[in-house]
Amino acid sequence: MFMGGEEAGKRILLLMSPATYRAGAFLRAAQSLGLEVVVGLDLPERLTEYWHVPLGLDFGQVGSAVEAIVAYARERPFVAVLSVDDSATEVAAYANAALGLASNSPQASEAARDKLLMRRLLSTGGVPCPVFRNVGLQAEPGWIASQVSYPCVLKPRRLSGSRGVIRANNAEEFQVAFGRVKRLLLGEGVAEAEGTLLVEDFIPGVEVALEGLLTDGQLKVLTLFDKPDPLDGPFFEETIYVTPSRLPEETQQAIAECVVVAAGALGLCTGPVHAELRVNEGGPMLVEIAGRSIGGLCSTILEFGSGLSLEELILRHALGELVEEVEREGQAAGVMMIPIPVGGMYKGVYGVEEALGVPLITGIEITARVYNQVVPLPEGGSYLGFIFARGDDVVEVESALRVAHHCLRFEICRALPMVERRGLREAGAGW
Fold first, then answer.
1. For residues 241 and 234, what is the distance between their CA atoms, to the nearest angstrom?
2. Looking at the domain assignment, is residue 411 inside a domain?
3. 3 pLDDT exceeds 50?
4. Does 118 fall in a domain?
């Protein structure tokens, strides 16, 4: 156990956005290890001052964010700087480089965030991945639609969580999808004259997710998740993750080898890695690889060694401890990310007690906030909540998640299109 504060000098900086799911798990892990934590929060300067946040940063302005971190570290040095999710992996890499701390290079972190850079490096590095092309937002979608092969997938270059990822089976669907992704990107502040999106061949097959740790380029596989629900589009909302994988051992080994080559192609060499792959008769094909751990509250189901959480393992690794011999505890486990069925105002959920009574269910966390708007994919980027399960058999764990989800009934007041709202208002319906 580490001692905290100035005496041990074990101070870490955790970079996070205000809306992240991952804050609690990392803060609890740091506390269990006796670490002093400084939180670097992605906030505008005026809100930083208003809320008295010690280290408010603008992750969109990497240079100034790094300058602020370095200035802070002169008085209170860090032994590690980590981003808890995708939002600040590049800031963390540049800050670690400036402070002389172990980290992936800024170039590798950028490649893991930008799908176009990732695809180019993977292709050059011989990693199996789909045929792709980069398309400007100002392009004429009808002409582009006549040039691509189908089915294809359109995706933003830097959004995560399947936001804006849409399958198109023909030219007509392509043009609709192109307009939808373009509107999303413009709404995110992407300049139309400079913005681009990626168009890739659709990869058939089952999808898996690998969770691992890299040490000097060597991969330790922490777990391999199966995704039993087909992810064939038109949108790619993830639901159930279960582990251990039911794929043959030789297939699992091929997946791990593919991830090692992919990490090397991008230049990722240290820290957590989360990879998504498709597997078909041709073997594994890389969809994406990120230099961070699994998102949402999914890590809750993972335990290692004598009860270590994934976040404790990541922090120990960042501090230079050897973790190669630590293994995941052997029980089957699963999580369901509860999808948003329709957009509108979330008003509540029924059946939670019934769902908790389903055998093997270990917990339910509803993360949607009452009377807040919820937005489904492809525009949305969150879930209604999470269901967790453990058991001796992975098939039974998957079944329990489905039964528990069936018990839940969500009340969402569906948002009306503007034209319908106008009509109701004119009719005196209280709008």
1. 20
2. yes
3. no
4. no
In one-letter notation, the amino acid at residue 269 is C
Helix (H, G, I), strand (E, B) or coil at 348: strand
Q: Which domain holds residue 56?
A: 5-111
Q: How far apart are the first and last CA of the chain?
A: 59
Report how many domains make up the chain: 3
pLDDT in tens, 249-286: 999 999 999 999 999 999 999 999 999 999 999 999 99
Long-range Cβ pairs for the range 316-321 (8 Å, 24+): 316/33, 317/213, 317/215, 317/271, 317/272, 318/12, 318/80, 318/82, 318/102, 318/271, 319/2, 319/10, 319/79, 319/80, 320/102
Boundary residue ending a domain (143, 168, 201)? 201
Provide the whole-model pTM: 0.91
Closest CA to 232 of 253, 212, 255, 204: 204
Residue 136: φ, ψ to 5°: -70, 150
| Cβ–Cβ under 8 Å, residues 114 and 158 | yes
Domain assignment of residue 272, yes or no: no
Asked whether residue 86 is assigned to any structural domain, the reply reads yes
**CATH number of the domain within which 137 lies:** 3.30.1490.20
pLDDT in tens, 192-245: 999 999 999 999 999 999 999 999 999 999 999 999 999 999 999 999 999 999
**Is the separation of the CB atoms in 198 and 258 below 8 Å?**
no
Q: How far is CA 337 from the centre of its chain?
A: 12
Query: What CATH number is given to the structural domain containing 385?
Result: 3.90.1170.30
